[in-house]
Amino acid sequence: MLDDLCRRIEEKSARVAVIGLGYVGLPVAAEFARVGYDVLGVDIQGERVARINRGESPIEGDEPGLDTLIADVVGAGRLRATTDYAELGSRDVILIAVETPVDEQQVPRYQALRAVLADLAPVLKAGALVIVESTIAPRTMRDLVQPALEGGSGYRVGEQLFLGHCPERVMPGRLLHNLRTLSRVVGGMTPETAEAMVVLYRTVTEGALDATDCLTAELVKTAENAYRDVQIAFANEVAMICEAVGGDVWAVRELVNKSPGRQMLLPGAGVGGHCIPKDPWLLAYAGRSAAARTAGEADLRLIPAARAVNDGMPGHMLALLERALAEAGRTLDGACVLVMGYAYLEDSDDTRNSPSAALVGQLERAGVEVRIHDPCVAGYQGDLLALAEGCDAAVVMVRHHAYREVDLGRLRGALRLPILVDGRRVFERAAAAEAGLRYIRLGDGRSVDGRG
Ligand code: SAJ
Question: From its phi and psi, is residue 35 left (phi > 0), alpha (psi between -120 and 50) or beta?
Answer without folding.
Answer: alpha
